[in-house]
Write a structure and sequence with these properties.
With 107 residues, the chain is α+β, with helices and mostly antiparallel strands. The chain has two helices and five strands, in the order βαββαββ.
Length: 107
Amino acid sequence: SNPGGRTSFSRVPILKAHYIVSGIVQGVGYRAFVYGIASKYGIKGFVRNLPDGTVEIFVEAQPEIVAAFEKEAFQYDRGEAEIQHIEKSYNEKELDKYHYDRFVIEH
């Protein structure tokens, strides 16, 4: 036995997070940057450009991994890029329609 250790049977809560990132975030390599971070953490979800110039991100992972993703994903200042605002929502009912088994850049 492993007293105090985590068992492989404990159900880890999964957090679904949704972001709309605005600023100068299209055409500056931001989607690839986000993809790299999500892949590093084994996060499921997507990143995509929206017609209004914003970038939409959906991630699904354990809460502490989502927190680590947020710390990195919104620090992007290469070239002309500039993140001005991030709209965040968590575990909203409409996020239940998304089912991903990996992280993808959607077009």
